[in-house]
From TrEMBL:
InterPro entries: SGNH_hydro, SGNH_hydro_sf. It comes from the Bacteria. Gene3D superfamilies: SGNH hydrolase (3.40.50.1110). This is Lysophospholipase L1. Residues 8-198 form the SGNH hydrolase-type esterase domain. Pfam families: Lipase_GDSL_2. Signal peptide: none annotated. The lineage of its organism: Bacteria, Pseudomonadati, Pseudomonadota, Alphaproteobacteria, Rhodobacterales. Transmembrane segments: none annotated. One of its GO terms (molecular function) is hydrolase activity, acting on ester bonds.
Length: 211
């Protein structure tokens, strides 16, 4: 039986390559993006829901706008698609931005809200039940053309894996620390190169199979 997986995240789920010139839109091709790599490994259908700039927090990003609210976005995604068999969530990188003003615990609180939505009776009933895999994004580097946006973000992002892992245990969902498998590109300190997408897609596929 074919399974359907919804991948919910930000630019690194969308497939944004390392930024060379800020403001120029680009995207890795379908064969490169990690959700497609994962789907090919598993033989599953994938729904890619990656929005560049999306946050785990429901707070409004003063630079990018209210539509970056991950809580609202997850509700929309889960009501737009279905039924699904599994949901992956990889968010928190944009919450490390200096102007968002969150602590690691504040970022984890946003992720907790996403898990409450995903694991709640309303959405689980709507889809006939589905599993969740929480993926902690790899740590950011404060360098390259968007370094000022992520001022202080490196320290915050390094504190996230144990918080995410604890949340996964509390909510009884799967967990994967992407930072154990890949690193962000030194070009912009945030996004993944093609090789990292390949590696992450394979790692997520293995984590899904364990679920």
């Amino acid at each position: 039986m074919t399974c359907t997986i919804l991948t919910f995240g930000d630019s690194n789920t969308h497939g944004t390559p390392p930024i060379v010139t800020r403001g120029v839109y680009a995207r890795h091709d379908a064969a490169t993006r990690w959700p497609r790599v994962m789907a090919a490994e598993l033989g599953c259908e994938v729904i890619e829901e990656g929005l560049p700039g999306r946050t785990a927090s429901p707070l409004t990003d003063p630079e990018m706008g209210v539509h970056m609210n991950g809580h609202l976005g997850l509700r929309i995604a889960l009501e737009s698609h279905g039924p699904i068999d599994l949901l992956t969530i990889m968010l928190g990188t944009n919450d490390c931005k200096a102007h968002v003003g969150l602590t690691p615990e504040g970022i984890a609180a946003g992720v907790a809200g996403l898990l409450a939505i995903a694991c709640g009776e309303e959405m689980q009933t709507r889809h006939g039940g589905f599993k969740v895999l929480l993926v902690c994004p790899p740590p950011v580097l404060e360098q390259g053309p968007i370094a000022q946006v992520f001022f202080g973000g490196a320290t915050k992002s390094l504190a996230l894996p144990p918080l995410y892992e604890a949340l996964a245990r509390v909510w009884n969902v799967g967990f994967l620390d992407a930072g154990e498998h890949i690193s962000v590109s030194p070009q912009d300190g945030v996004h993944f190169n093609a090789a990292s997408h390949q590696t992450l897609g394979q790692a997520v596929a293995k984590a899904v199979m364990r679920l």
